[in-house]
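Lab channel / #folding
Pinned by the channel admin:
"Please post every new chain as: sequence first, then the structure tokens as a reply. Keep commentary short and put observations after the output so the thread stays searchable."

First post following the new format, from NK:
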Amino acid sequence: MTLDQVPRPVRGKPRAHEFVFARLRYESGDWDYNPKVAANILNSVVEYTNIPVYPEEVVITADSDELLSFPFLFMTGHKLVRFSTTERDRLRRFVERGGLLFSDDCNHDVAGLYATSFEHEMRRAFPEPGTLDKLPRAHPLYRAFFQFADGPPQTAHELNGWGDDLVHDYLRGVTVKGRLGVLYSNKDYGCEWDYDWRNKRFQRDDNTRFGVNVVVYAMGS
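Reply from TO:
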């Protein structure tokens, strides 16, 4: 089955058992960058797993009353990240209730505007020690579905020397109650996965497989 074969709900709303690719809209930056990521990852989830999916991206704000209905939240951009007190509190509740926020820096560096401002916001939302620690290669995320013994897969943007000219061999995160609640990447997976999923057949290796791991982990499978 492919994404365009997935049955759509009669009224256009996700069913309770479906995985929903929710994207965070925030007012300070370019939250809508990489628009093809959702469809690409959703197609991979359909292709490789038995997880039922809602076949469209849902855009939501951090202060929405519906935020806690979703297990997964994708966030990306190049620019400033700023949350209001209400948004910060809702994101903390989202994580504490078992949600996974996946924040991917399109600048793929460690000192750019997105990186420094997002880290600042996470320290305010999660002031306890250990915020955004490096994830060990033995973390369950890297074996949630596919096996990534060497940790997070590299992206073409790192290998081409863009950003800070570094290949980041780690991801970082916030762990709450023994479960990863914030996954933070300087690797620019958003640009890596921003292509029409129908073109995946032309690639030697499917570079969206790590996205499947993220989804499976978020769904608690």
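NK: The two ends are 20 Å apart (CA to CA).
TO: also worth noting, The chain has six helices and seven strands.
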